[in-house]
Target: Sushi domain-containing protein
Amino acid sequence: MSPLPRSAPAVRRLMGGQTPPPPPLLLLLLLCIPAAQGDCSLPPDVPNAQPVLRGLASFPEQTTITYKCNKGFVKVPGMADSVLCLNDKWSEVAEFCNRSCDVPTRLHFASLKKSYSKQNYFPEGFTVEYECRKGYKRDLTLSEKLTCLQNFTWSKPDEFCKKKQCPTPGELKNGHVNITTDLLFGASIFFSCNAGYRLVGATSSYCFAIANDVEWSDPLPECQEISPTVKAIPAVEKPITVNFPATKYPAIPRATTSFHSSTSKNRGNPSSGQLTLFRFLRGVAVIIIIVALILAKGFWHYGKSGSYHTHENNKAVNVAFYNLPATGDAADVRPGN
Model:
């Protein structure tokens, strides 16, 4: 009798511990048992990395598992980072995670060369190179390279790029050019004019980069002389107020109007002698008016009180004018009761 195959114990368990049948029948039973020999076990360990299982509990044929580097480690470019289940075994994978420096230091005066721009793996001893930015020029006495050190930090950079200088702005006629710091890339200058001149153009300019050089953003302005007409404009627009004595005294006779008119033509205030004369004339006029009023009142009262005449011919006049009674004697005229 031929010996039992290696799978005989499994077949005996399936048949409840009974002796297996002869080989032809045993072969038929083995063909009917579900095959589990294609599944792989757990993925192998990889230094400095962990498998991404995505919740899988079994790993059938053709299953692929990818690894992720631990914190502080970076995948080495060009190396495989996954395994494949094939014939109930995992494919071989080499160590692909290694220590690396971070992204190279960013410099304000230089930029990393394009050949390193997409790289993320910088092992110990790796060197990168820089090139000057616009507005800067290379200092050949200093190195433009940085190296990843043993502690996985970058070496300290030298300032191997220096600012370029804009040309001297020149002199501003009838004005001043104020240089606050220097004439290097990024600096600003300011313009002003002397008294009696006005600025025409930009009040400031800064040194900026253009192509492979630097220049001023604005040209020098001009200082133009302010003409007399321009100076007089504010004085014309400003109202002028002149005070005359007439605003301080009552109305005066028309004869004095010519006095004020003549003085106003002189665009000045009357002198003290003219004021004294004016006051004297005004006083004389007032006195004359008062005397005239007194005399007029006296004559009016005198005429109202009546008159006495002895002339014969005046009898009729006196009787008619004063409404007096007449007596027999023409000369005798008496006031009525």
